[in-house]
Specification:
The chain has 218 residues and is an alpha/beta fold. It has one domain (13-205): Rossmann fold, CATH 3.40.50. Helix content is 42%, strand content 13%. The protein has helices at 26-40, 60-65, 70-81, 98-107, 133-145, 160-163, 172-194, 197-205, and strands spanning 13-18, 44-49, 84-88, 119-125, 149-150, 155-157. Strands 1, 2, 3, 4, 5 and 6 form a 6-stranded parallel sheet that branches. The chain is globular and about 50 Å long. It holds the Pfam family FMN_red.
């Protein structure tokens, strides 16, 4: 009897991490919550720590010598191994953390460029009443410049030091919105992976001409 060909694993693979080095970071707790719900939704989750991707400041001369830091190599490897990514990022002075921007700068030097055409979801948690959303708007800029398909709806949790536990968000309505946002992102990314026509729909959603190459940095 002829052997059956191996069944392709069509499950979505998602890298999830918080852009914080602090052990008790509320964004790390939010990332863990997202990872659990993504797994329950059927995704294969790769939960990482920012410490794995941290490294020295980007230096073009070091880059030219090929001395790529281990953190950059690891971020490139993990992005390449997954179909999509979720980042829970704190807000520092109205923007993204410097260590996250530095990691993105290093990762952008790889070819093929690992953020290009990968779907991404951004979220934040903050003790402030703004929830860290200003930092997410800043974070969208380099990711979209590199061709990432950043999900339009972002999630920000205000007063996170009291609103968030390891198990859930205290406010049931916010918990529901968190889950709906995450599930909508996962469904879109999974459809884009398994049904190529979804790529055309996403490009059209962004207002780009689908029958011409997008003007992206590669």
């Amino acid at each position: 009897m002829a052997e059956r060909p191996p069944v392709e694993d069509r499950r979505l693979r998602v890298l999830v991490f918080a852009a914080s080095l602090r052990k008790d970071s509320v964004n790390a707790a939010l990332a863990r919550l997202a990872a659990r719900h993504a797994s329950r939704h059927g995704a294969v989750v790769d939960l990482a720590s920012m410490k794995e991707f941290d490294g020295p400041s980007y230096d073009p001369e070091v880059d030219a010598r090929g001395d790529i830091p281990p953190g950059a190599l690891e971020l490139n490897r993990r992005l390449t191994a997954n179909d999509a990514f979720v980042i829970a990022s704190p807000e520092y002075n109205g923007s993204m953390p410097g260590l996250l921007k530095n990691a993105i700068d290093w990762a952008s030097r790889f070819r093929p460029q690992p953020f290009h055409e990968r779907h991404g979801l951004l979220m934040s948690a903050s003790p402030s009443m703004g929830g860290g959303k200003s930092g997410l708007w800043a974070l969208r800029i380099p990711l979209e410049h590199l061709g990432a398909r950043v999900f339009p709806d972002m999630f920000s949790l205000a007063a996170a030091h009291t609103a968030l536990s390891e198990e859930a968000i205290a406010d049931a309505r916010l918990q529901q919105r968190f889950e709906q946002n995450l599930h909508a992102f996962l469904d879109l990314a999974e459809a884009a992976k398994n049904y190529p026509c979804m790529k055309r729909a996403w490009v059209e959603f962004l207002g780009e001409t689908p029958d011409m190459p997008a003007d992206r940095m590669e």
